[in-house]
Task: structure prediction
Amino acid sequence: MPLPPPPLLDLYRLMLLARRLDERAWVLHRQGKIAFHISGIGQEAAQVGAAFALQRGKDWFAPYYRDLALMLALGLTPLEFVLGLMGKQGEPSSGARQMPSHWSLRRANVVSHSSPVATQAPHAAGLGLAIRLRGGDAVVLTTIGEGSTSQGEWYEAVNWAATHKLPVIFLVENNVYAISVRQNQQMAVEHVAEKAAGLGLPGVIVDGLDAVASYRAVGEAAERARRGEGPTVIEAKVARMTPHSSDDDDRSYRPRDEVEAMKARDPLALFRQRLLAEKVLSEAQDAGLQEEVKGVIEAAVAEAEAAPYPPAEDAAYPVYVEDVRRG
Amino acid sequence: MGEITLIEGLRQAMDEELARDDRVFIVGEDVGPRGGVFRATLGLFDKYGPQRVIDSPLAELSIVGVGIGAALYGLRPICEIQFADFIHPAFNQIVSEAAKMCYRSNGEWTVPLVIRAPYGGGIGGGLYHSQSLEAFFTHVPGLKVVIPSNPHDAKGLLKAAVRDPNPVIFLEPKKGYRLIRGEVPEGGDLLVPIGPAQLSRPGADLSVFAYGMMHHYVLQAAEIVAAEGIQAEVIDLRTLLPIDKAAILSSVRKTGKALIVHEDNRTGGYGAEIAALLSDEAFTDLDAPVRRLAGPDVPAVPFSHPMQDWFMPNTEKIAAAIRELAAY
Ligand SMILES: Cc1ncc(C[n+]2csc(CCOP(=O)(O)OP(=O)(O)O)c2C)c(N)n1
Ligand SMILES: [Mg+2]
Result:
C-alpha cells in the first residue's frame, strides 16, 4: 500500500498545538506553578511526521521525553499533559508518580518509559518480537536522542532487531547536544545513521525540521517492516531550541550565534510559510487555528490548576499487580 | 510418584507451560538446539520450534529488555541467564524497568516475566560461575524472588512463576541440578504458590532458615545433630520476596532461637533482613542472639579447592553452628 499524501493541515495543527503548549509550560515554570519542564521545541516536525506515517491504534510506541508533539498526535490531550506537569490526579502516564514527560498511554499503545536513557530501545525490540510471534503487520516506533545512542542498550536493541528482522523503527532525534555535550564528543561518526551499517540494517538521514520528509522516511521504514524486511534506523536532524530542561542554562556551553541561526530555521515557521506559499493554508485560517489552540491550552491549564493532587496514600500502590485497584 | 532431579523438574515445568499457554516462550543463550549449557531446556526446541525457544544474541541486558517488551505486549517470556554471575549487565532492565513498570504506570503496564538464573558455588566455577546474588534483588520492591531447593518445588514454583503477573527472579541452585533428587507427582498440574515458606523438618530447640542448596545441607546437618539430641526445626524459605513473615515468626516464637544459613556473603545479605525482622517482631521470644552462617565477605568464590571450601558453608559448618546456638 503506497503511503497516502501527507495530511499537511493536520501536521501543522499538531505542531502548532505542541509548540504553544510547550511554550505555556515554560511560562508556568517561570510563574513557579510547575517544578520541571523538558522541552520538545524544535523537534515537533520530525515527531508529527512520524506519528502520521504510522497506524494509530494498531502500531506500538516506545518514545522518549522530548516527544510531546508525538504524544499529542497519538491522542494525549493537552489537559492530560498539564496534569502531568503539575503532578495532579488523573495524569494518565503514571498517576503522577513519574516526572513530567515520562510518557505512557495504554489506549494508544504507548508503553511506559523511565528516566535512564535508552532503556526503551530493548522494549521496542521485544514488542517487535511479540508482534512477530503473534502474527500481524503492526510496527513499533522507538525514539531517542543522539547522545543516548552511545548506550549499550541501544546497540543491543538495534542488533537484536536487525538479527531477527523485527518490525521496529529506531528514530533518532539528533539535536546535536546531550545536555551540554556535543555530538563530536559522543561518537566518531558524522551521522548517527552511519552506525546502522555496522549492525546490518539501513540507516536513513532525514531533515527533521521538515514534517513531510519525516512522514515519508518513517512511512517507508514502516512499509519495509510490515513486509517483513526488518528494522530501520532513521536519523532526524532536529534542533534543540531551548536549554536541556528547566534546570539547565545553556549559555555556558552554547554559542549564541548558533542559537540565533537555529531560530531563523524554526521548523514551525518554515512549515507555516510553506503551507501559505502552497496555498494549503490561508492567513485567516491560520489565525483561526492559533485562536483555537490558545483556547484549548488555556482551558487545559485552568482545569489542571483546579484539579486535586493525588492522595498521599496512593504512593503505596501498586507495587505488584495484585495491588492494582481497578475502576 | 517418580523420583527426578531438580533440573528435570525445571524442564518439565517449562515443557508443561509451553504446552499449556502459547504466549509462553523461552529466550536466552544456547537454549535452542543445545538445550542450554546445563540442558534445562533440552528437547524443547525440537518440540516447540524456534519461535518458542529462541537463541538470543550474547547480550544479557537485551535478553531481559526484549523480554520486558514482549511481556508488555502480553506474552509470557521465560528469560534464561546462563549463570547468575552474568545477570549484572541486565541489572538496569530488571531494577529500573521490570520492577518499576507496574508502579510507575499506575498499573497500566505490567511485566509478567520470569528470569531464570543458575546460582551458587561449590562447583569449581571460580569467581564468575559461583555467585549468589539474591540480596541485590530482594532489595527491590516490584520483584518476586524465588529459590527452590528440591525437584518438587522447582517444578511447582517455576510453573507458578510463569503464571505470575509480576516479574519473578527465579534462582536455581545449580550444584543441586543433578545432585538433588526427589519425588514429584506424575501428571496433574503441580503448582507451588509463590509466597509461603515450607516447614521441612519440625523441631523444638531452634529454628534454621535456609533456601536453595543450603537448605539441602541444613537438612543433612539437622539429621546429624538429631543423633546428638538437638531438635532443629528447618524452614525452607522458597520465596524470599515477598518474605513469609508469619512462617518465620511462628517458628521462632516456638523455639526461641534462630540460625540463618546462606552462601551469599554476610554483610547486607538476606539473613540480615530476617535478623532485623526477628528483632522487630520477636524480640521478647528470643532466648539467644540471632545467628547467621553465611559466605565470608570476600568478592566471590575462589577457584582452587581449599579456598573454595573455605568459602562455602557446608553440612559440617552448619552442624557446628547449630550445636553452638543450641548450647547458648
Ligand atoms: C542512563 C542515564 N544517564 C544520564 C542521564 C541524565 N541525562 C538525561 S538526558 C541526558 C542527555 C540526553 O541527550 P540525548 O540523548 O542527545 O537526548 P536529548 O536530550 O538531546 O534529546 C542526560 C545525560 C539519564 N537520564 N540516564
Ligand atoms: Mg541530543
